[in-house]
Inverse folding.
């Protein structure tokens, strides 16, 4: 690599000496000359040297002013400057931003060594900068890729029109931690029965999103192909599919990946609503009171009880009641004055307080409350809350 060195000095003799010194050590250096501070600034901006050697006492513009101007310019601000001076103005040169100095008269190896030292620093900085740029580019590529994945993930979620076909009124608060989500919702129907599910897959980001694709595809398949009377039947099939997919055999050391889910089975004719849950409960608000329907303490995936059937519960629902389905992200978010979890108790209180408001308002309040609670804390998990009115 050839280095460009700008030497600024009003003495032609001095410039000649500098030229000879660098010529002696080969053609690694390209020298540019300036005879005063003004010319030095102009040439530095124009040619962007790797190193500047700057005399202090010069006509037109002295070295100190030239250094100030160079430092204040974005494109020359980082170029190392070695001051060459016989005077005592070194202090002001340093304050202006000079990096090093050599007192005149200098020995030729002294100049060479100082120049080499400065240039090796430049080389190290350039390496770091190019690594930084590479990492920034890689990060951009990864994020672009995840954003594209988000489009696919959004495309497989049930559309508003589809949900509206089955549910009179609803809202969704969907706040992924990292663009794509490990949480998903699913709505479908067959033979006068509607199925609604809210699920939380292990992990978040890309790994969680992979599982949501499988979960969605399996729910489509199960509800279309299988006969089912109970909400638990669907969870039973879903668990078998996930265990098969992940080739889980219950052996030590294998992955315990899977999902937690709350699932409703609504009989359209009778209006009966069944619920079955894998780790994820639901809340029902009626007459200003909130009731929790607890889930079975086992996941959709391998577990010591993976042969045990899930439990069905018939929800005590009257027209106007509101059911909330959710993942653990909301209650588990750290924040508040003490940096603690939001907790289910606060979540339930919030829901009771807002349950009579229109759904659009409820969604807004839940969103805003979480933003305030989270403050500067990082979001720990994907957040999904669904409200349904019967
Ligand atoms: Mg979660």
């Amino acid at each position: 690599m050839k280095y460009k060195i700008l030497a600024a000095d009003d003495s032609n003799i001095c410039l000649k000496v500098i030229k000879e010194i660098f010529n002696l050590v080969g053609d690694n250096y390209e020298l540019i000359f300036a005879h005063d501070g003004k010319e030095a600034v102009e040439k530095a901006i124009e040619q962007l040297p790797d190193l500047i050697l700057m005399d202090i006492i010069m006509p037109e513009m002295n070295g100190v002013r030239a250094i100030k101007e160079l430092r204040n310019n974005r494109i020359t601000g980082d170029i190392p400057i070695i001051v060459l001076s016989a005077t005592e103005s070194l202090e002001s040169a340093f304050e202006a931003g000079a990096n090093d100095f050599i007192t005149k008269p200098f020995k030729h190896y002294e100049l060479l060594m100082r120049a080499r030292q400065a240039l090796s620093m430049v080389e190290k900085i350039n390496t770091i900068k190019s690594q930084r740029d590479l990492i920034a580019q890689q990060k951009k590529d990864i994020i672009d890729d995840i954003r594209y994945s988000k489009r696919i993930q959004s495309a497989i979620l049930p559309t508003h029109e589809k949900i509206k076909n089955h549910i009179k009124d609803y809202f969704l608060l969907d706040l992924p931690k990292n663009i794509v989500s490990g949480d998903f919702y699913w709505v479908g129907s067959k033979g006068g029965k509607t199925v609604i599910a809210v699920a939380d897959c292990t992990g978040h980001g890309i790994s969680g999103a992979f599982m949501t694709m499988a979960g969605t595809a399996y729910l489509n398949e199960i509800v279309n192909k299988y006969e089912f009377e109970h909400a638990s039947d669907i969870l039973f099939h879903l668990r078998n599919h996930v265990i098969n997919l992940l080739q889980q055999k219950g052996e030590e050391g294998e992955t315990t990946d899977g999902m937690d889910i709350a699932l409703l089975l609504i009989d359209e004719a009778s209006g009966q609503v069944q619920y079955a849950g894998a780790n994820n409960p639901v809340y029902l608000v009626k007459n200003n009171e909130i009731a929790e329907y607890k889930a079975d303490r086992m996941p959709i995936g391998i577990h010591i009880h993976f042969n045990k059937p899930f439990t069905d519960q018939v929800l005590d629902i009257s027209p106007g009641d509101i059911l909330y389905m959710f993942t653990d992200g909301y209650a588990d978010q750290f924040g508040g004055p003490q940096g603690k979890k939001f907790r289910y108790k606060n979540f339930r209180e919030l829901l009771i307080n807002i349950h009579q408001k229109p759904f659009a308002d409820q969604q807004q309040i839940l969103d805003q409350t979480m933003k305030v609670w989270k403050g500067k804390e990082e979001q720990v998990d994907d957040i999904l809350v669904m409200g349904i009115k019967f």
The chain has eleven helices and 18 strands. The chain has two domains: 3-129, 157-389. The domain at 157-389 is CATH 3.60.40.10 (Phosphatase 2c; domain 1).
